């Protein structure tokens, strides 16, 4: 069966009490960590969680929640983003827009879209995701289905936690072609191999091979000094220099 890309609509067999218990554990741990460690996000890992519990959490908390969930083979990660996490995430939206505008491409930004590979018991919500090469295939589509539509061409993960869940097997199950991972100020590019079984770190982006993707962290830092829009304009100028060279 092809992985489905949607918010769950059906009911699971788990009880609401089970969900409330898991949420209470996560909330208590989140509050404890937040008061002792000034980090950019709070991540809680819970083991022995069923797929039904994961789907019920998605359903009960809805699309407007602040938390993001990732699930892989019985392990559930609950991530609560803070300002130092969300600022670079939002900047990546603007940076990718600069790239596609400079190249005359189209773009569909879908943010933290819930993506699930149910037969492989894997699912997550990236910090942001984009359709670029396959934008025309999903333009105007309100209900994405991997049986018909391709996965996003590019996802971005901002991860400053040493104990976070490994997302690469989840993205591999979903066949996402490219991942940008920002970790402690360093951006790495990971591309799905030809066999579509694993990711390899790459020097250049598949989506934007001619553009200075690995320089993006310096524009995130510039935003803290000159402002976000000024940093975006500086990136646009840098991209023009590269394309004109």
- Helical region count? 7
CATH topology term of one domain: tt1808, chain A
How far apart lie the N and C ends?
A: 47 Å
If strands are numbered along the chain, what order do they take across the biggest sheet? 4-7-8-9-10-11
The percentage helix is 25-40%
Broad structural category = alpha+beta
Alpha carbon gyration radius: 18 Å
Just give the CATH class of one domain.
Alpha Beta
How would you characterize the largest beta sheet?
Answer: 6 strands, mixed
Q: pLDDT below 50 for ≥5 consecutive residues: which ranges?
A: 1-14, 28-38
The amount of beta strand, in percent, is 15-25%
Indicate the CATH architecture of one domain. Answer: Alpha-Beta Complex
What is the molecular shape? globular
**SSE string, helices as H and strands as E:** HEHEEHEEEEHEHEEEHH
Report mean pLDDT, rounded to a whole number.
Answer: 86
Query: Strand tally, please?
Result: 11
